[in-house]
Amino acid sequence: MKLIQNMINMKINVITTDELLKYSGQYNIKVSRPQAEKIAAFLRGKNFDIFNDQTRAQIIREVAKIAGPNTAKEINKLFIQFTR
């Protein structure tokens, strides 16, 4: 299980704008290219652990500042799916 968690966290920590846009389209989350660029830049290289509730909440707060609360809620739902 720890291996899968590490793989998911690694993907989050190196995500590109295009990958984020692909996933947002796949999961029907509305994110513009400029928003995706800012979100990807925020996530990249930070070594976040989305399996930690406090860390995930911190990420979602920052995403809400970048893309708005509705988008942040949808991304949180996506993160929760990844962590189950």
UniProtKB/TrEMBL annotation:
Q: Which InterPro entries match?
A: DUF2624
| Highest rank taxon of the organism | Bacteria
Pfam families from the UniProt entry: DUF2624
Q: What's this protein's name?
A: DUF2624 domain-containing protein
What organism does the UniProt record list as the source?
Lederbergia wuyishanensis
